[in-house]
């Protein structure tokens, strides 16, 4: 069942549909919170608040393009508010907890190779300027499309594309020295 | 002009097209355009490889379902207490402690799986329409090795082939046109230069091994009972009898053994040194049957080897010999196996029994 159907069921007071949405997006939004630099407890609170808000306002909530961008946008706004209010809460993100999803079907040497590659790319990601880094991660890691990212960050889709282009160009230049 | 500057000329549109392809988000028409571009435009195909590499490095987002379920249970408590109190105000979020049963139907949770590998694989299969034509009328260049001899062959595309003793490699004169095809009788180690546009195909009898760029070993002596393809790095595709339903894709560390007797293939693990030791002048017996071991000795030392006792046919031999003379090899084998050997002119005769 896709998001649109689930959302219309939520609007019709269907708690099961609501639960499905929560379970679908919880891992993604947790990861996003971690990336935005808040600790996991704060992240849990943010996600719960966003979903609580969605449930309370379910009848009048307006989703412009996709539910995904609505949820990411809401999480981002809350995290920014939280960080603005109390800089002390900006703790180091936890270590990435588990790689289970990919490790299941990869051999150890393959995993090692992939892990190396991933660490290298992640290091390059860290070298990007803040806005570029956020946009790249939203596209690359979280598979949000350009339109969705544009809405979440309130910038134009073309700006999003330019950032991705620049990031990829930067990685390719950096990769030249690793190869 | 170096690559650094060349890259700057790739435009945004092309990058986004490649990313769209990797994400499975472009139309059939755009896919056709991309495939055509990959095959004709070197810069584009370089960019494609880099971006595919970046995209394949993406990790899967950890999916901790027990954590999600706990969080959902807490959220449902909040909502229930909120609704029980009849207040929809967000300020009324007071933790209540009374137990509430939550009925949840767990639906399969969609995970964001890193499917880039699969996509890249599909891409390569799509592009590489395999043809398994026998040599036939093709003109060829031939390289071969005498017993006891090894040879390194540099192919025009930068691929390096190490040819083991008593082997021959035929290189099609059309090599490098749109495919890179070679025909092997014997054993060779291939270090294939990566070129996704031109699949590299090794034909060995009924087996065709196809790769884009990788390290692997093929052993296909005409008088051996098996053909083996052992993959050290990368991915290879092995086709049998030109039958796509029998296609095998090997991962690194896996080897396929095809029995010429029953036309069956099976895949097992292997230890690199056992398979590629010969390149470093190591004579390796890896649970070889005595008949196969005798053939190996014969090829390695360039003399005929004969087994006298039929009981030997059933034993297997395991061991590694570091480029030492035949007599020393045999003395060492004698120490562990119940065999004796003698030279009759140029010919070696081994007798004994299994132990």
Can you describe this structure in just a few lines?
Chain A has 179 residues and is mostly helical.
Structure description:
The complex is a heterodimer of chains A (179) and B (355). By secondary structure, chain A is mainly α. Chain A folds into 2 domains: 1-91, Rna Polymerase Sigma Factor, Chain: A (Orthogonal Bundle); 102-179, Winged helix-like DNA-binding domain superfamily/Winged helix DNA-binding domain (Arc Repressor Mutant, subunit A, Orthogonal Bundle). Chain A has helices at 3-11, 15-35, 40-56, 67-85, 100-103, 108-127, 130-140, 146-153, 157-176. Chain A is elongated, with a radius of gyration of 18 Å. Chain A starts with a helix and ends with a helix. Mean pLDDT of chain A is 80; it is low at 87-106. Chain B has 355 residues and is an alpha+beta fold. Chain B contains 9 helices and 18 strands. The longest helix of chain B is centred in the N-terminal third of the chain and has 20 residues, at 65-84. Chain B starts with a helix and ends with a strand. The model of chain B is unreliable at 1-8 and 88-137 (pLDDT under 50). At the A-B interface, helix 2, helix 3, helix 5, helix 6 and helix 9 of A face helix 1, helix 2, helix 4 and helix 5 of B.
């Amino acid at each position: 069942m896709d998001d649109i159907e689930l959302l219309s069921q939520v609007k019709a007071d269907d708690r099961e549909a609501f639960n499905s949405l929560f379970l679908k997006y919880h891992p993604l939004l947790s990861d996003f919170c971690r990336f935005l630099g808040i600790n996991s407890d704060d992240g849990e609170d943010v996600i719960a608040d966003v979903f609580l808000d969605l449930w309370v306002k379910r009848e009048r909530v307006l989703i412009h393009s996709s539910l995904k961008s609505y949820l990411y946008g809401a999480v981002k706004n809350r995290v920014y508010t939280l960080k603005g209010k109390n800089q002390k809460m900006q703790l180091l993100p936890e270590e990435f907890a588990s790689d289970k999803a990919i490790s299941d079907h990869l051999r150890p040497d393959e995993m090692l190779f992939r892990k190396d590659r991933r660490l290298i790319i992640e290091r390059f990601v860290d070298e990007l300027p803040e806005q570029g880094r956020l946009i790249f991660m939203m596209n690359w890691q979280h598979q949000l499309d350009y339109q969705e990212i544009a809405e979440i960050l309130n910038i134009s889709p073309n700006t999003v594309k330019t950032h991705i282009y620049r990031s990829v160009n930067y990685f390719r230049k950096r990769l030249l020295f690793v190869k | 002009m170096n690559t650094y500057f060349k890259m700057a000329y790739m435009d945004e549109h092309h990058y986004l097209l490649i990313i769209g392809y990797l994400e499975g988000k472009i139309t059939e028409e755009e896919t056709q355009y991309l495939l055509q571009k990959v095959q004709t435009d070197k810069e584009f195909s370089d960019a494609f490889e880099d971006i595919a590499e970046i995209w394949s490095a993406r990790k899967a987002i950890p999916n901790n379902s027990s954590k999600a379920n706990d969080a959902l249970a807490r959220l449902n408590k909040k909502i229930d207490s909120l609704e029980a109190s009849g207040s929809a105000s967000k300020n009324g979020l007071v933790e209540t402690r009374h137990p509430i049963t939550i009925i949840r139907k767990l639906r399969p949770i969609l995970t964001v799986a890193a499917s880039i590998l699969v996509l890249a694989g599909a891409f390569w299969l799509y592009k590489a329409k395999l043809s398994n034509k026998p040599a036939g009328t093709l003109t060829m260049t031939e390289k071969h090795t005498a017993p006891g001899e090894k040879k390194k062959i540099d192919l025009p595309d930068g691929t390096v082939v190490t040819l083991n003793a008593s082997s021959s490699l035929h290189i099609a004169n059309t090599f490098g046109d749109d495919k890179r095809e070679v025909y092997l009788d014997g054993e060779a180690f291939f270090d294939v230069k990566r070129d996704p546009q031109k699949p590299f195909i090794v034909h060995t009898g009924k087996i065709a091994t196809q790769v884009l760029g990788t390290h692997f070993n093929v052993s296909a002596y005409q008088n051996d009972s098996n053909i083996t393809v052992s993959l050290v790095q990368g991915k290879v595709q092995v086709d049998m009898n030109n039958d796509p339903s029998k296609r095998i894709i090997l991962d690194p560390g896996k080897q396929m053994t095809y029995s010429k007797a029953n036309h069956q293939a099976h895949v097992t693990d292997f230890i690199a040194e056992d398979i590629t030791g010969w390149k470093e002048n190591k004579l390796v017996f890896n649970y070889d049957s005595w008949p196969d071991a005798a053939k190996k000795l014969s090829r390695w030392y360039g003399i005929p080897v004969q087994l006298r006792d039929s009981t030997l046919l059933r034993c297997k031999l395991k061991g590694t010999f570091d480029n030492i003379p035949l007599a020393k090899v045999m003395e060492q084998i004698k120490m562990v196996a119940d065999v004796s050997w003698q030279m009759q002119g140029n010919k070696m005769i081994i007798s004994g029994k299994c132990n």
